[in-house]
Design a protein that fits this description.
This protein is α/β, with parallel strands linked by helices. The chain contains 10 helices and 10 strands. An 8-stranded parallel beta sheet has the order 3-4-5-6-7-8-9-10. Strands 1-2 form a two-stranded antiparallel sheet. Helix 5 links the parallel strand 7 and strand 8. Helix 1 crosses helix 9. The radius of gyration is 18 Å and the shape is globular.
Length: 282
């Protein structure tokens, strides 16, 4: 039985709080990996144009036997520096993503990066307003947007992003951004929720909490996210870990354990492992 809770986005759309990410999964492998995730019980799948695996992901969705209305599919606009992103370019990119996925609609469409130096994300968001109004994306949002970027959209559009997908883990807790999201009714979604490599997962405090619960370090960190209300999209290509990452609803962290994990990112700007959204324009 699928036991993943849902959160209600600001337009009423329901989104599973735990999903499956396919970053760095080659297209040739995506069909098998996503099929494994769906068989394990995941119903939310997160891909992106730049990942190059929308087609493989779509094949897995089509062959899964899971009804479309039970799935939550996210993809993202790659608003790269190689072209000008006017309305027609945005709408064309969206059409291409739908075609590769083999879907009539997606549940969530995100602007992948703000690229503030290009001064074009507000114009892109205007095209997203059209996409949302058409019903071909049940909800629209952003990814990697900073408080200043969200303020800019809020000043120029009545449509509040449903989601901001950001780098977020105990070493980079993003307290300011999460507080702004709560104030504005924007759901917080974490990419790289387990950090990168083994650094976070081998910290003594994480290992101690995991041993106390008879769980893996990854399960403990995912549980930390869920209890903070974050949406998470862990990624793995290993069937056992795919299943393990979903099995995080049979235990809870107590307040002291949550506080101990919170403290890992306290007192500093945090440990960012991905690009800085203020300067990223690759």
């Amino acid at each position: 039985m699928n036991q993943v809770p849902t959160i209600k986005l600001n337009n009423g759309t329901l989104m599973p709080q735990l999903g499956f990410g396919v970053w760095q999964v080659p297209d040739a492998e995506a069909e098998k990996v996503v099929a494994t995730a769906l068989e394990a019980g995941y119903r939310s799948i997160d891909t992106a144009s730049v990942y190059g695996n929308e087609a493989g992901t779509g094949k897995a969705l089509a062959g899964s036997g899971v009804a479309r209305e039970e799935l939550f599919v996210t993809t993202k606009l790659w608003n790269g520096p190689d072209r000008s992103w006017d309305r027609d370019a945005v709408l064309g990119a969206f059409d291409t993503s739908l075609a590769k996925l083999g879907l009539e609609y997606v549940d969530l469409y995100l602007i992948h990066w703000p690229r503030p130096m290009r001064e074009d994300f507000v114009a892109i968001w205007k095209a997203f307003e059209e996409i949302a109004a058409s019903g071909r994306a049940k909800a629209v949002g952003v990814s990697n947007f900073r408080p200043a970027d969200l303020e800019r959209i809020g000043a120029e559009s009545a449509l509040v992003p449903a989601v901001n997908q950001i780098e977020l883990h105990p070493l980079l807790p993003q307290a300011e951004l999460r507080a702004l999201h709560a104030e504005r009714g924007i759901a917080t979604e974490a990419w790289s929720p387990l950090g990168q490599g083994k650094e976070l997962l081998t910290l003594p405090v994480v290992a101690e909490i995991a041993a106390r619960h008879g769980r893996s370090a990854a399960q403990v960190v995912l549980r930390w996210h869920l209890q903070h209300g974050n949406v998470v999209i862990p990624k793995s290509v290993t069937p056992a870990r795919i299943r393990e990452n979903l099995d995080v609803f049979g235990f809870e962290l107590d307040p002291a354990e949550t506080a101990a994990l919170d403290a890992l990112g306290a007192g500093s700007a945090g440990r960012r492992i991905g690009p800085d959204p203020a300067v990223f324009d690759a």
